[in-house]
Model the fold of this input.
Amino acid sequence: MSTLLKIDGLQASYGHAQALFGVSMAVDAGQVVTLLGRNGMGRSTTIKCLFGLLAAKAGNIVFGGQPLAQMASHQIARLGLGLVPEGRQIFTNLTVEENLVATARAPRAANQLEPWTLQRVYRLFPRLQERRSNLGWQLSGGEQQMLAIGRALMTNPRLLVLDEATEGLAPIIRTEIWNALAALKQEGLSQIVIDKNVGALLKLADRHYVMERGIVVWSGDSHKLRGEPEIIHQYLGV
Done:
């Protein structure tokens, strides 16, 4: 299995306050990987550095063999990184369908997965097809999250990154989101998932990275994490 993303020794700061202290992690092609930890421990900061939204002070990020240092966010996205941001950030004054096509992009030659189209997104989330003429502000929180995922998929990513995948959603909607992510994994789409629902992540993910105060304090697969409940209790408060 080839390595799609490798982060090595990543350091980052907000002004004079250092937030990351040498974060290292990797995602292989087709893998689902999680970043776990309490709020403020560096998970979202790691994602910001990955997408060029925050400049790294030190370390390396290599995606698909391409170093991302000094690249602009739009250039990074074109390499095949798709983001479902915390807070969704959909276009509230556009319809569902307009949101989906606004950032649509043809797949890169290196992407061997079936291309994402409107109809494919609608098959994954039938509710979006039902609401395709509704404006973004008219959607429920769950529908907005489905739209945010669909919008990211329409960029035809090689790696889908979800920051707080199911935060604040009703249980029935959470289940629908987890089922969709499992279906994407079955198709071979690599993912990084940030979420607090450890039970769902243990079923979905191949590998977990636990963060505490800007460093990775533990990593391993789901079987290993299930066997160390003290890690979950100490660093996740679950």
About this structure: The chain is about 35% helix and 25% strand.
